[in-house]
Amino acid sequence: MNQFIALTSFGIESLLADELRLLGAEDIMQKPEGIYFSAELATAYEICLKTRLASRVLIRVGDGKSSKDKEELYSAAKAIDWTEHFNSDDFFAIDFVGKNENIRDSQFGGLTVKDAVVDCFRDAGLDRPSVEKYQPDIRIQARLVRNQIHFFVDFSGRSLFQRGYREGTGAAPIKENLAAALITRSGWLADTSKPLIDPMCGSGTLLLEAVGMAAGVCANVERESWGFTRWKFHDAVLWNEIFEKAKAESEQALAQCKVKVFGYDMDGRVLRNAKDNARNAGISHLMEFKQGRAEELKNQFSEPGHIIFNPPYGERIGSLPELVATFTELGKVFKKEFVNWQVSLITSNIELLALLKLSSHKRYKFKNGPLDCQFALYDVNEKQIERTPVEADFTGQNSDFANRLKKNLKGMKSWLKQNNVSCYRVYDADIPEFNVAIDKYNDHIVIHEYAAPKDVDELKAAQRLQEVIFWAPRVMDIAPDKVALKVRAKQKGKTQYQQLSKTNKALTVHEYDALFKVNLWDYLDTGLFLDHRKTRKIVAKKSQGKSLLNLFAYTGSVSVQAALAGAEKVTTVDMSNTYLEWAKDNFELNKLRGHKYEFIQADCLKWLSDNKTTYDVVFIDPPTFSNSKRMDESFDVQRDHLALIKSGMKSVSVGGELVFTNNKRNFKMDFDGLNLVGLKAECLTEVTRDFDFKRNKHIHNSWVITRL
After folding, report:
1. CA neighbours within 13 Å on the CB side: how many for 136?
2. In the CATH scheme, what is the code of domain 517-707?
3. Can you tell me the distance from the alpha carbon of 99 to that of 82, in angstroms, rounded to the nearest whole number?
């Protein structure tokens, strides 16, 4: 009897233990690291062929009593006669799992085991076997658990969940073993004569697993490579006998299968992948695929069945605004079209489930890749439909937020007619309970969610955000896929301009006579600070026929407006090469070219201290706080603004002026300190705050600094 461990992902462990028991495994023991079991070689072969829930099966080949440090780990690995398990001409690899006080990472542990294995062959007078990380003949796994090391040979091979039929996938495919677990938990297998629908089927993984399980097909009979093939204790004759029998049984089971499942998806490309996958698996005759939106699903069946799906989570594909609209409509569709059906879905965005207006009778926790998810099961019965939901239904017509947004838009009509701008703020936490800001950019909107105070219930805050996301595009007549959502909190140091994603999408917007490139998706800020619109206009006017120095320039919007206004010279300085390139793009958009436009990548504080050139106008808009790795010291605008202004005035020519702005709430200008060094400050905050920011008196601070 051999000892094994079967690995799987979180949430599947107990199901895998049950499956192993049915497949003939003995001494089954479920532990956090995996499912331990005993089995004869023939049973282990069958498990590899038939398991739908394991991701890997390893066979134990030895143990060490203690492995507290490198020496003990080496000795434990050296004590095993590895020449009994593979040959010198076989390529091998080491996987190391676990750590302790002295063995702190997998690479260190793996190298130690590798040295012991190689020395074992050398001591036996044999050639040293070579290491191959990616496609070895033999893969050894060393697992360190509570200072005790266990050695395994990879029996099944990696990624056991890959069935071999899948050629194409959608943007966020679900693994087959997780799909099998969801089908099991859904309850459909208790009566597979009932219809099964996946309204967001993608490449069809859930349905493919469902048909395979209902038919009793061996899950891995099409797999081409196995971990045990070059293992010396592998019994090829026994394996071939078991494999041929399993293959014949699968073919017979498939021929007798009468189930029918149905998949829908709005993406024709992934539907083609689903059809190809079904064809490769030999089960296309048992599956029907149609293109269509889940929200428009109709019940065309004579008896109730099951709906199971894996919707986008708003993490990798799909936007949260689209999902809010989708989930809201799905709840209505289920209650209207699918009474007495069972509905089950998996999501990492738990708050979205409330939008269905259904009460789940069971929830299971799983991991889908790195994401913590819940699999929710619903009975869509008459009681569900009659029950008044606990959550407020914000999809009706009486929404305080929607009413305020409509009022704001109406009040802005006259201002918009008088100003040639395509991007502006339409809402800024006007109602404290709806703590968001909403900006319009052409036919897109950005919703900035301010971090909720700690005393606000997280669920309540999430529901209010959902209401905002639901209503904002409707009131503003914006398509949900043109809504970007961002969470704003206090940003410090390196997180200040941290990239959120990598869409590389851009819009061109206009402000007065200037064009700007904005990116609504990839960064917390879009590339254009809307609250500084009037500031840019004022600086541009001051720069006509003069020279401008723009420090902490970001994407160069102030520089662009000054250049368009006729500035004789514009120098743009920022520490980020990304934003300087963005600034150059903005200049190119406006056909501003020539030697009088200079772009400098530098630490602005250090550059100022070294600069010898003077300018008629200096514009400084520093971060509130920064400790970038490119700066020698941290910067705090309240603490350091006087030193910054003094340094900046050295670059101001005689009779020139410095415009200083920042966005720190409750900022206090050091007037006494300015007077001591012969400077005075005139506050421009009210003048630079435009109509769309009149509700937020603390959005920014603006000053003109001149010499006494």
Report:
1. 26
2. 3.40.50.150
3. 23
CATH value of 400-489 in 3.30.700.30, 3.10.350.10, 3.30.750.80, 3.20.20.150: 3.30.750.80
Query: Would you tell me how many other CB atoms lie within 10 Å of the CB of residue 132?
Result: 14
Query: How high is the pLDDT of residue 458?
Result: 74
Question: Which amino acid, 241?
Answer: E
Give Cβ neighbours of residue 385 (< 8 Å, ≥ 6 apart). Answer: 335, 339
Mean pLDDT, the chain, integer: 91
pLDDT of 317 > 80? The answer is: no
pLDDT of residue 168 exceeding 80, the answer is no
Q: Measuring CA to CA, which residue among 684, 687, 676, 666 is closest to residue 645?
A: 676
User: How far apart, in whole angstroms, are the C-alpha atoms of residue 141 and residue 60?
Assistant: 9
CB 413 within 8 A of CB 390: no
Partners of 405 in the β-ladder: none
Nearest to 174 by CA among 280, 313, 307, 278: 313
CA dist 61 → 92, 122, 141, 239 (Å): 15, 20, 10, 20
Residues 436-490: pLDDT tens digits?
999 999 999 999 988 777 777 777 787 788 889 889 999 999 988 889 888 755 4
The model's pLDDT over 490-516, given as tens digits with 9 standing for 90+, comes to 444 433 434 455 666 899 999 999 999
